[in-house]
């Protein structure tokens, strides 16, 4: 195996391990709140407050059916409002409630604290380097 192939293999293993570890840690950190997948949906709505289901799906790189299923749980918990467009009944809008915004802010603090602790031994220069590298290899992003 040539050196490049070995490096790519090691990078992908390390990256998968990091993602798996973070998911497991967040499951514990968010235990008394909502699951991480519901949090990410709320977070998408944090800035815009109201979006169509299809726009949320696009931003999450997911499907409208997934967003519908997940948003229904958030509606039941009082964190989202679902509304149909009066002119086009096929169009559904999601709006984050005040309770949802408050929850996102609390959970964002948990995320920040987690990563601040996790990245404690990494200098700002090293972090900038990693960010630059990740920006270079990021898959093509579609603007919404």
What is the CA-CA span between the terminal residues?
Answer: 41 Å
Order of strands across the biggest sheet? 1-3-2
In helices, the fraction of residues equals 55-70%
Main sheet attributes: strand count, strand direction, barrel closure:
3 strands, antiparallel
Radius of gyration: 18 Å
Count of helical stretches:
6
Order of helices and strands: HHEHHEEHH
Low-confidence stretches: none
Structural class: mainly alpha
CATH topology of the largest domain: Arc Repressor Mutant, subunit A
The CATH homologous superfamily name of the largest domain equals: Winged helix-like DNA-binding domain superfamily/Winged helix DNA-binding domain
Residues in β-strands, percent: 5-15%
Provide the CATH architecture of the largest domain: Orthogonal Bundle
Q: Which class of the largest domain in CATH terms?
A: Mainly Alpha
The number of strands is 3
Number of domains: 2
What general outline do the C-alpha atoms trace? globular
| Average pLDDT figure | 90
SSE layout:
Layout: H1 3-29, H2 36-48, E1 50-52, H3 53-60, H4 64-76, E2 80-84, E3 92-96, H5 98-118, H6 124-137
Antiparallel strand pairs: 1-3, 2-3
Helix pairs in contact: 2-4, 2-5, 3-4
Overview of this protein structure:
- The protein has 144 residues and is mainly α.
- The chain has 2 domains: 1-32; 34-118, Arc Repressor Mutant, subunit A.
- The chain is 67% helix and 9% strand.
- It has 6 helices and 3 strands, in the order ααβααββαα.
- The protein has helices at 3-29, 36-48, 53-60, 64-76, 98-118, 124-137, and strands spanning 50-52, 80-84, 92-96.
- Strands 1-3-2 form a 3-stranded antiparallel sheet.
- Helix 2 crosses helix 4, helix 2 (36-48) crosses helix 5 (98-118) and helix 3 packs across helix 4.
- The protein is globular.
- It starts with a helix and ends in a 7-residue tail after the last helix.
